């Protein structure tokens, strides 16, 4: 199980980082969200995985480590606050700078042809 | 002499006087300004007798021992000599400047700078501590900068001052390094210790470094080749400044430094080689260039360089007598050069020009001044009966005794004579070209004699030229001896100060110099023609050019590195992290540890597959934003399920609710952002990013696995053991949050509150582009508030609030708590916003979310403060069980108040963000009439 | 746990699972978005009810008291599922998603999309 | 007024006890507390809705719908796994005659939950309910059954 | 018996979830994806409740309840976005 | 006064929260009073705290009454209380400036300012590494919000970069924390310091990766190369009081490096002893170099100030790399000096920019100043302090750093860089000063805004600190020396803080 778990954490990290390295603010925000999932799972795992051992006294026979859980809770909330700020800041940047590139200006596009319509509907 | 500690500070006090007295008459100002330096001079002179007897005054009090700095002064012969020059000539300059400066110039500011500089110089020469010496050394650089740039509105003054500051400042840094190494080598920063450790220093491995660094300081300050070029450009300063800085003080500081460290550093081959060669080169070059200057002050400036070279050369020779000669020339040069500068200033002041091509035949207009100038330049030329002659004779004598250059040693006296020839020639030019040589050409003013008292300083100095020249022993004998002894740190050797030593070789050299000089001046036109062939380069422009090219190169480097590309910045940051972690991970032999693993089941595999595929899908489709959002939601859902599976119900709940709020937020944002992302990353960039991402992902995954498969001893048993008894709750995670680590939670809700405030700030001035169609040009639906959604949302609200209350109340003992409850409430309210719109809500509820945040944080904090009343630390919890008839046993805990604060902050923050974000559009967007 | 309880639990679990699976299967199988809408709205709702009943019985047994919390989940789902379906249908209509070829009264779709009254009211 | 929304208060009271699986005195007190405070809190956030005039009819209606949900679900499940070729989907416009939004919503929801139909839209003038049927045999029959089986009772319950 | 049933049921739900994901990835329309996500929420509820039975634990109910409540909100918001762009107007 | 050590956190927190509530929430005048009173309280209590610590030694404040290592403890020792006092003094001075009118142009300036102070003080005081993360986030989010204060395109753009980079940083921080908890099983820094010494083999290797991740995070905050890129634009675009307050932000990163890599991964960390040093060395030196190049390239006073911050970060990192008591002492002194001096320069730059019309603070010729003498004097003071020339505090700090090098190899690298850095600053400042004050055309600009009394007072306070640091340099360096030796002594910085634990 640990192997699968670790694989997922690594994959999420990789996905998050790849998106964070993109040029558009929305992709970056999505990347950061993925990264924060990875972070939370990682931090959680630092207390080791246990099944059927929720740390509610009297409800389980053995207990998992409650401390990382508390830490992850804090991290989730803080991550939410930060993501929210980043999202709105991205909007503000679009409003102020006219585009949604993280650098505030669009890179020179050699050919617009690559901008194919994705057609999501 | 107990006053020695505060003596140098007397002039410093004086810097305020001119600023305060400037509003009175200029004369008053000048006299008041002069008072303290005069007093200082008097106090110092009153001790001269003792010093002539060979005594040395020292005083020190500790200051900053950590850097070896103490407030330490010494008054010995050398210091006495320099103090007299600094203060004496300083006083004359004060008098002179009173007349020189025009009414527009702020005389108060000028005097203030001058006194500051005087203080700094005095500090340098009186210092008995290396660091303190450097301290004052730098002060001279700074205050001379102020003086040189006194006419800062002129470009020349600015550039000249900058150049002087840059060169001397750079030298100062080298000096600091040298002094620090010197002090560390000896183990003391006390000057006396250094002077007493000469042999030790010269034997030490650090000696070459020390010598080079200290000499760099000295050479830059004393305008030695190749650092000489700043000095002529410092002539942009008012002439009193030049008279002061370039005769007795600033440039002499470098000489002083060499003299001061003479016992510690001199008399080695290295010293000889560097110092004599530099001195010789400077001596010749200065003299040569001086001849070709058309600017009166330019001539004097280059002559100064030359004379400084001469003194340096003497100090480099390493014989005691050479040192004596050097000290003597220091005195003489100060006297005649100060008077010459002042004379040049008078000429400039009264004729409006310093250009020797315009200045001709001034004898007729200012014979008195001319006479003074002629005496002084005679001294500069080394004409007998003048003081300059005496020290030059000693110099020539010493050059003859040099053997250090081996078979080439004869070069030194020859070159010295050559320098002498040039000196005579430029002195001649100074006299003849200005006072005779026809009629003035196009002078702005008709020249005339200066005011009476403007001449006084010149008269005094010229008188000194003669007096010292004729009665050297009487005038400066004791002083010279004391200063020379102090320089040598031992009794000076015997020498004769007689005017006449009989016909000897040095005399011959003098004669050759004088005759040669006259001949050379006579035939100057050939020389000028020869010189005119060389391209002229203005060192100022060259220097500015160099500085500017350095700045622009720096600019290019910065523009290249800080290219404003966030992608690059992130890449570097993550790259460093990857390199650091990966490199240390290489040492991990086995990834898996000893801890038994949980067996894999199909459910988990399904979860992993769902998670992986949706994460990958998010990446693949990140340019189709809505789709990415949906796949992201799946990832969030699976993560929550994972938390639930691995025994963290609280985490699952929190993750779920945060997830929903985040998605709503992202959807809100999506409306204002482009619907799709263009494909703009080059394949190379994609490969690069993919590699980095996989590397870090791999590293993190590996570490995660390695951690999970190793046993761990944690502090957590304490929490499970004390949760119920100490924290009053059975949900240990919640008890950690509100009690054991409640401080974290307080910080966390503060973060949330601040984020909301910040977002409010972001929103409040946002001007948004609102698309009227979707990404493909399809107009939006006209149904603003679908009826089913509206009605159902209304019915859900009370239920949601009830659930929220349920989650809140049970949090302490079962999964739940204030945070999750807060999010549920927020989501329920947001749901109303989605279903009904802002306008509808606005008329119906009047919640001030900002107040909610404020009171939430306040309540949480105050609940923690309550414990102070009982003498406990902040956030100490309190709980008890109560029994009420009918209701039964129930628990009350301070943690619940804390949790209430959390709840309020969460609701306030989320709503402040979302409601305001929603509100953004309502005012501008045309409201369609609802059909009813 | 008494056998009869176990049997009941197992049966309701299985029923639930089957319907859940059918619901999700329909999502794959049905040819257009309008038809697919039916499958989770109905089958999955029933499926989840099965699981909820099982859970309810099981938890009641576990706690030793009557546990009906799960009814609340059912309540929520019953309330929200039609709205979700309605909203999704609206989006599909809004984007003029073509239904299956043989869908009857296709001409109504544009009317529905614009929330107008039907041009020629059905022959009622 | 202590109970601005008596139905909701009752619901909240019940749900609280349901959530806590308890009818202890403490929970009853809390349940009453929430039954009073929550409606009071949200009362501002509501449009006026018609009152339930015939509660018994309402209960009967709920039970009937539940039964229909069961049967409908089985039917739909069979349709889903059966041959798709046999399915005849279609849109249907159902004329409705209910004044209140709540009533329309209830009707639409019921339609969605019961036999192979999903409420797709309500017309602007709220006099038509558009329905998508998974298998449309007989259009009139469907309209009639919706109107009789569901619309009628709803109108009666709310008296409109 | 219960254990075997749980395994079977879990397998069913897993398959259901995979099918949902399939639809979610395949689309073809965003509406389909939202529908798939919504269905996924329902299956997740079932899974959690099942897990509660399996673990004989009462701690999972809230998670199920929350998914039921919140899943709808995000479905509604996504649909509203597709319809109007602006979800809070 | 057993609660004294939490005052520096609680005072700004409460004042910040109260300013969100009526009657303060809608009225800037009362918020200003509130802020001044709050920061004054803070200043006084921090001073008293420092005084007490100096007399009676380190204070451990167990929050919630839960003893270390189980609960969160605040550690008020000489190091942290010095930096808290520094922050409080800075806060007080900056708020004086802000109430001159810079607090307008957006909501919530005062509460956010307070929260930012709370975050910084919390980061200095906490003895728990996760709590450190929390306070980092508090100060970061407040800084994000303050950065955009008064709006403008540049601000938005710079903030976006700053925010995203720091979000990445926070993720790395949590990864690092996860690793450290996963290997050490504790969060209290003193406890970690003790447990680290017992790690061996593969667990030690794992812990090392965590420690290095934290180094990246702290390095990002401290503007360590190659993570310094964000700083110049961010600082230069920030509104003046915010930029001035930011002068301490990099120091939080530096402080954390000292705390973590001296106490936890210091001499006594067994296999993990001094793990940061090999990385810190090159990066610190390169940071000084790139900062100095930036100094030379600076086109305006604000950018110059920002680049000077990078140079000072580099110098401080070099101290961390030297890793000795003398170096730590030098760093502490230098931190105080450079924070106040650069804050003063940021404020000054703003005062000057407001009087120069369109030229603002760029080094181009412009209209003359309304208050040339005042500004000139202040400029000279801050220039001297920042270049590191006598008689101001810069030279003391510089000499202390130079004196702290321990081997000739270190000397060979550190000395030239630091001295050349000073030269770069000297060149730039002399160019800047002569241009700003003497290259004029036209008359005073019509829109020129003379500096207000409170603003002058604020800058005066900040700049006055510099000569005072020299004048009382003996006592101050003695204090920093003691503080440094505390930090390097595992007995007092770890064992003594844990009840019942002995080496
Ligand atoms: Na002439
Ligand atoms: Na809106």
Describe the structure.
The complex is a heterohexamer of chains A (121), B (932), C (124), D (160), E (89) and F (503). By secondary structure, chain A is mainly α. Chain A has a single domain, classed as Helix Hairpins, CATH 1.10.287. Chain A has helices spanning 2-20, 25-45, 66-97. In chain A, helix 1 (2-20) runs antiparallel to helix 2 (25-45) and helix 2 (25-45) runs antiparallel to helix 3. The longest helix of chain A is centred in the C-terminal third of the chain and has 32 residues, at 66-97. Mean pLDDT of chain A is 87; it is low at 111-121. Among the domains of chain B are: 269-533, no CATH class; 731-927, no CATH class. Chain B contains 39 helices and four strands. The model of chain C has no long low-confidence stretch (mean pLDDT 88). Chain C is elongated. In chain C, 71% of the residues lie in helices and 0% in strands. In chain C, helix 1 packs antiparallel against helix 3 and helix 3 (38-63) packs antiparallel against helix 4. Chain C is built from five helices and no strands. In chain D, 58% of the residues lie in helices and 11% in strands. Chain D folds into two domains: 6-45, no CATH class; 55-158, Alpha-Beta Plaits (2-Layer Sandwich), CATH 3.30.70. Chain D is mostly helical. In chain D, a hairpin with a 5-residue loop joins strand 2 and strand 3. Classes of the chains: A mainly alpha (121), B mainly alpha (932), C mainly alpha (124), D mainly alpha (160), E mainly alpha (89), F mainly alpha (503). At the A-B interface, helix 1, helix 2 and helix 3 of A face helix 27, helix 28, helix 29, helix 30 and helix 31 of B. One sodium ion sits between chains B (918, 920-922) and E (86, 88-89). Chain C: Residues 104-124 are annotated as: Disordered. Chain C: The chain crosses the membrane at residues 6-28, 71-89. Chain C: Keywords: Membrane, Transmembrane, Transmembrane helix. Chain C: One of its GO terms (molecular function) is sodium:proton antiporter activity. Chain C: It holds the Pfam family PhaG_MnhG_YufB.
Topology:
The complex is a heterohexamer of chains A (121), B (932), C (124), D (160), E (89) and F (503).
Chain A: H1 2-20, H2 25-45, H3 66-97
Helix pairs in contact in A: 1-2, 2-3
Chain C: H1 3-29, H2 33-36, H3 38-63, H4 70-94, H5 108-113
Helix pairs in contact in C: 1-3, 3-4
Chain F: H1 7-18, H2 28-56, E1 59-62, E2 73-76, H3 78-102, H4 109-125, H5 129-147, H6 153-184, H7 189-196, H8 201-221, H9 230-237, H10 240-246, H11 249-264, H12 277-297, H13 301-322, H14 325-353, H15 372-387, H16 393-404, H17 408-438, H18 453-471, H19 473-488, H20 490-493
Antiparallel strand pairs in F: 1-2
Helix pairs in contact in F: 1-2, 1-4, 2-3, 3-4, 3-10, 3-14, 3-18, 4-5, 5-6, 6-8, 6-9, 8-11, 9-13, 10-14, 11-13, 12-13, 12-17, 13-14, 13-17, 14-15, 14-16, 14-18, 14-19, 15-17, 15-18
Bound molecules: sodium ion (2 copies).
Family (chain F): Belongs to the CPA3 antiporters (TC 2.A.63) subunit D family.
InterPro entries (chain F): CPA3_Na-H_Antiporter_D, NADH_UbQ_OxRdtase, ND/Mrp_TM
Keywords (chain F): Cell membrane, Membrane, Transmembrane, Transmembrane helix
């Amino acid at each position: 199980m640990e192997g699968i778990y670790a694989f997922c954490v690594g994959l999420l990290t990789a996905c998050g980082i790849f998106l964070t390295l993109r040029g558009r603010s929305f992709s970056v925000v999505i990347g950061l969200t993925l990264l924060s999932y990875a972070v939370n799972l990682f931090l959680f795992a630092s207390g080791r995985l246990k099944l059927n051992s929720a740390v509610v006294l009297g409800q389980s026979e053995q207990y998992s480590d409650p401390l990382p859980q508390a830490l992850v809770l804090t991290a989730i909330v803080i991550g939410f606050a930060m993501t929210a700020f980043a999202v709105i800041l991205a909007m503000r940047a679009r409003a102020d700078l006219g585009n949604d590139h993280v650098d505030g200006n669009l890179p020179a596009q050699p050919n617009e042809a690559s901008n194919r319509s994705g057609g999501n509907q | 002499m107990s006053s020695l500690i505060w003596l140098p500070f007397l002039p410093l006090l004086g810097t305020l006087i001119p600023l305060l007295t400037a509003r009175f008459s200029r004369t008053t100002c000048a006299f008041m300004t002069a008072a303290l330096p005069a007093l200082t001079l008097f106090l110092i002179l009153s001790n001269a007798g003792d010093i002539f007897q060979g005594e040395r005054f020292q005083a020190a009090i500790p200051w900053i021992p950590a850097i070896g700095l103490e407030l330490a002064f010494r008054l010995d012969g050398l210091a006495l000599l320099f103090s007299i020059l600094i203060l004496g000539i300083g006083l004359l300059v004060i008098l002179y400047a009173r007349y020189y400066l025009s009414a527009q110039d702020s005389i108060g500011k000028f005097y203030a700078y001058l006194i500051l500089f005087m203080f700094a110089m005095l500090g340098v020469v009186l210092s008995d501590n290396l660091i303190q010496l450097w301290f004052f050394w730098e002060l001279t650089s700074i205050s001379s900068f102020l003086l040189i740039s006194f006419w800062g509105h002129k470009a020349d003054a600015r550039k000249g001052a900058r150049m002087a500051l840059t060169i001397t400042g750079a030298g100062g840094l080298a000096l600091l390094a040298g002094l620090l190494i010197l002090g560390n080598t000896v183990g003391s920063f006390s000057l006396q210790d250094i002077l007493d450790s000469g042999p030790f220093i010269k034997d030490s491995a650090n000696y070459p470094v020390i010598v080079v660094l200290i000499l760099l300081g000295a050479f830059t300050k004393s305008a030695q080749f190749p650092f000489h070029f700043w000095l002529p450009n410092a002539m942009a300063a008012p002439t009193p400044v030049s008279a002061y800085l370039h005769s007795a003080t600033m440039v002499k500081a470098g000489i002083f430094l060499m003299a001061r460290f003479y016992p510690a550093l001199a008399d080695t081959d290295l010293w000889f080689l560097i110092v004599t060669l530099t001195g010789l080169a400077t001596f010749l070059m200065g003299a040569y260039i001086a001849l070709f200057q058309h600017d009166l002050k330019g001539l004097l400036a280059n002559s100064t360089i030359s004379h400084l070279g001469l003194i340096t050369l003497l100090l480099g020779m390493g014989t005691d007598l050479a040192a004596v000669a050097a000290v003597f020339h220091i005195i003489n040069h100060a006297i005649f050069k100060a008077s010459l500068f002042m004379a040049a200033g008078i000429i400039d002041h009264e004729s409006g020009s310093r250009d020797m091509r315009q200045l001709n035949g001034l004898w007729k207009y200012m014979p008195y001044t001319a006479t003074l100038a002629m005496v002084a330049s005679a001294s500069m030329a080394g004409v007998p009966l003048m003081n300059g002659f005496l020290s030059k004779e000693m110099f020539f004598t010493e050059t003859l005794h040099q053997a250090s250059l081996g078979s080439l040693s004869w070069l030194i006296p020859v070159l010295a004579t050559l320098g002498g020839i040039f000196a005579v020639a430029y002195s001649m030019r100074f006299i003849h070209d200005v006072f005779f040589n026809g009629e003035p050409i196009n002078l702005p003013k008709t020249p005339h004699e200066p005011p009476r008292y403007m001449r006084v300083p010149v008269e005094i100095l010229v008188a000194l030229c003669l007096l010292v020249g004729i009665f050297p022993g009487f005038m400066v004998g004791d002083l010279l001896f004391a200063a020379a002894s102090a320089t040598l740190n031992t009794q000076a050797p015997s020498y004769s100060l007689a005017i006449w030593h009989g016909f000897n070789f040095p005399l011959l050299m003098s004669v050759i110099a004088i005759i040669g000089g006259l001949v050379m001046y006579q035939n100057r036109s050939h020389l000028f023609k020869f010189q005119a062939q060389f391209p002229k380069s203005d060192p100022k422009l060259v220097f500015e050019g160099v500085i500017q090219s350095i700045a622009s190169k720096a600019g290019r480097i910065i523009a290249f590195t800080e290219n404003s590309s966030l992608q690059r910045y992130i890449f570097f940051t993550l790259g460093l992290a990857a390199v650091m972690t990966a490199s240390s991970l290489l040492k991990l032999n086995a990834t898996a540890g000893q801890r038994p693993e949980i067996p894999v089941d199909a459910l988990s595999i399904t979860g992993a597959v769902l998670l992986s595929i949706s994460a990958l899908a998010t990446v693949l489709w990140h340019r189709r934003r809505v789709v990415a959002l949906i796949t992201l939601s799946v990832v969030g859902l699976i993560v929550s399920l994972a938390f639930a599976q691995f025994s963290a119900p609280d985490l699952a709940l929190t993750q779920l609710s945060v997830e929903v709020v985040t998605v709503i937020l992202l959807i809100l944002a999506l409306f204002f952002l482009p619907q799709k992302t263009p494909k703009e990353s080059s394949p190379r960039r994609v490969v690069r990013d993919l590699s980095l991402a996989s590397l870090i992902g791999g590293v993190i995954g590996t570490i995660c696995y390695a951690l999970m498969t190793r046993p761990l001893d944690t502090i957590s048993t304490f929490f499970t053991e004390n949760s119920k008894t100490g924290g009053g709750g059975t949900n240990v995670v919640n008890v950690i949050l509100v009690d054991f680590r409640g401080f974290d939670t307080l910080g966390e809700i503060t973060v949330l509150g601040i984020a909301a405030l910040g977002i409010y700030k972001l929103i409040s001035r946002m001007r948004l582009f609102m698309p009227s169609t979707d990404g493909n040009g399809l107009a939006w639906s006209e149904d603003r508030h679908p009826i089913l959604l509206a009605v159902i949302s209304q019915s859900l609200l009370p239920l949601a609030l009830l659930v929220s209350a349920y989650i809140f109340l049970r949090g302490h003992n079962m999964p739940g708590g204030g945070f999750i409850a807060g999010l549920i409430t927020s989501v329920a309210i947001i749901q109303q916003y989605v279903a009904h719109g802002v306008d509808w809500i606005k008329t119906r509820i009047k919640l001030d979310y900002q107040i909610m945040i404020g009171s939430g944080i306040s309540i949480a904090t105050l609940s923690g403060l309550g414990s102070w009343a009982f003498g406990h630390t902040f956030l100490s919890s309190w709980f008890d069980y109560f029994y009420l008839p009918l209701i039964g046993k129930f628990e009350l805990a301070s943690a619940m108040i804390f949790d209430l604060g959390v709840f309020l902050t969460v609701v306030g923050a989320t709503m402040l963000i979302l409601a305001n974000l929603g509100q953004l559009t309502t005012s501008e967007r045309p409201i369609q009439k609802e059909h009813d | 746990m008494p056998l009869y309880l176990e049997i009941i639990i197992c049966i309701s679990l299985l029923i639930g699972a089957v319907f859940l699976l059918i619901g999700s299967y329909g999502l794959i199988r049905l040819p257009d978005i309008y038809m697919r809408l039916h499958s989770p709205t109905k089958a999955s709702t029933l499926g989840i009810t099965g699981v909820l009943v099982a859970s309810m019985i099981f938890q009641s047994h576990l706690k030793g008291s009557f546990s009906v919390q799960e009814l609340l989940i059912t309540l929520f789902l019953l309330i929200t599922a039609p709205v979700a379906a309605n909203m999704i249908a609206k989006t599909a209509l809004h984007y003029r998603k073509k239904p299956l070829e043989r869908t009857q009264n296709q001409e109504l779709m544009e009317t529905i999309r614009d929330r107008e009254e039907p041009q020629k009211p059905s022959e009622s | 007024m202590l109970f601005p929304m008596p139905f909701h208060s009752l619901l909240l009271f019940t749900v609280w006890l349901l959530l806590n699986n308890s009818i202890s005195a403490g929970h009853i007190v809390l349940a009453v507390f929430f039954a009073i405070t929550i409606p009071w809190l949200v009362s501002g956030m509501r449009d006026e809705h018609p009152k339930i005039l015939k509660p018994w009819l309402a209960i009967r209606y709920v039970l009937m719908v539940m039964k229909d949900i069961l049967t409908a679900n089985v039917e739909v499940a069979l349709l889903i796994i059966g041959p798709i070729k046999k399915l005849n989907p279609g849109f249907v416009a159902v004329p409705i005659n209910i004044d209140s939004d709540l009533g329309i919503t209830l009707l639409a929801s019921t339609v969605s939950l019961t036999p192979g139909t999903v409420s797709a839209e309500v017309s602007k003038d709220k006099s038509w309910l558009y329905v998508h049927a998974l298998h449309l045999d007989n259009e009139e029959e469907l309209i009639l059954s919706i109107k009789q089986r569901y619309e009628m009772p709803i109108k009666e319950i709310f008296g409109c | 018996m219960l254990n075997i049933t749980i395994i079977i049921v879990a397998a069913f739900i897993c398959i259901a979830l995979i099918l949902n994901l399939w639809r979610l990835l395949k689309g073809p329309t965003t509406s389909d994806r939202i529908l798939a996500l919504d269905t996924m929420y329902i299956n997740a509820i079932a899974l959690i409740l099942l897990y509660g039975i399996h673990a004989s634990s009462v701690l999972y109910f809230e998670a199920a309840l929350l998914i039921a409540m919140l899943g709808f909100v995000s479905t509604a918001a996504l649909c509203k976005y597709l319809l109007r762009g602006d979800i809070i107007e | 006064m057993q609660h004294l050590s939490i005052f520096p956190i609680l005072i700004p927190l409460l004042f910040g929260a109260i300013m969100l509530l009526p009657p303060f929430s809608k009225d800037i005048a009362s918020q200003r009073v509130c802020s001044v009173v709050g920061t004054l309280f803070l200043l006084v209590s921090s001073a008293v705290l420092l005084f007490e610590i100096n007399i009676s030694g380190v204070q451990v404040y167990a929050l919630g009454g839960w003893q270390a290592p189980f609960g969160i403890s605040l550690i008020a020792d000489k190091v942290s209380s010095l930096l808290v006092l520094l922050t409080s003094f800075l806060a007080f001075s900056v708020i004086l400036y802000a109430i001159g009118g810079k607090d307008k142009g957006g909501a919530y300036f005062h509460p956010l300012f307070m929260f930012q102070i709370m975050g910084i003080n919390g980061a200095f005081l906490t003895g728990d590494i996760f709590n450190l993360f929390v306070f980092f986030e508090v100060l970061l989010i407040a800084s994000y919000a303050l950065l955009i204060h008064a709006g403008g395109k540049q601000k938005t753009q710079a903030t976006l970069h700053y925010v995203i980079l720091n979000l990445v940083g926070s993720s790395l921080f949590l990864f690092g924390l996860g690793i450290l908890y996963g290997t050490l099983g504790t969060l209290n820094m003193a406890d970690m310091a003790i447990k680290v010494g017992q790690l061996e083999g593969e667990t030690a290797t794992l812990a090392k990766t965590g420690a290095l991740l934290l180094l990246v995070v702290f390095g990002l905050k401290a503007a360590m190369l190659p993570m310094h890129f964000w700083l110049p634009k961010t600082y230069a675009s920030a509104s003046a009081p915010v930029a001035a307050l930011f002068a301490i932000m990099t120091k939080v990163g530096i402080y954390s490096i000292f705390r973590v890599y001296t106490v936890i991964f210091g001499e006594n960390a067994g296999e993990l002893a001094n793990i940061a040093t090999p990385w810190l060395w090159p990066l610190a030196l390169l940071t000084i170099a790139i900062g100095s190049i930036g100094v030379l390239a600076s086109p305006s006073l604000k950018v110059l100030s920002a680049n000077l911050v990078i140079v000072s970060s580099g110098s401080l990192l070099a101290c961390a790399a030297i890793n000795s008591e003398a170096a730590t002492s030098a760093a502490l002194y230098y931190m105080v000096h450079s924070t106040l001096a650069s804050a003063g320069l940021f404020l000054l730059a703003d005062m000057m920019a407001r009087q120069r019309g369109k030229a603002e603070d760029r080094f181009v010729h412009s209209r003359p100043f309304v208050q040339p003498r005042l500004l000139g004097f202040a400029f000279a003071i801050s220039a001297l302090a920042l270049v590191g020339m006598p008689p101001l505090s810069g030279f003391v700090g510089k000499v202390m750093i130079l004196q702290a090098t321990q081997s000739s190899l270190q000397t060979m690298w550190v000395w030239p860089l630091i001295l050349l850095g000073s030269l770069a600053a000297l060149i730039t400042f002399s160019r800047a000063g002569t241009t700003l004050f003497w290259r004029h055309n036209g008359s005073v600009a019509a829109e020129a805004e003379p500096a207000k009394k409170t603003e002058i007072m604020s800058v005066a306070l900040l700049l006055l600190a510099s000569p005072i640091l020299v004048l009382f340099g003996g006592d101050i360096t003695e204090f920093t020396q003691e503080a440094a030796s505390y930090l390097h002594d595992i007995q007092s910085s770890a064992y003594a803080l844990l009840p019942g634990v002995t080496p």
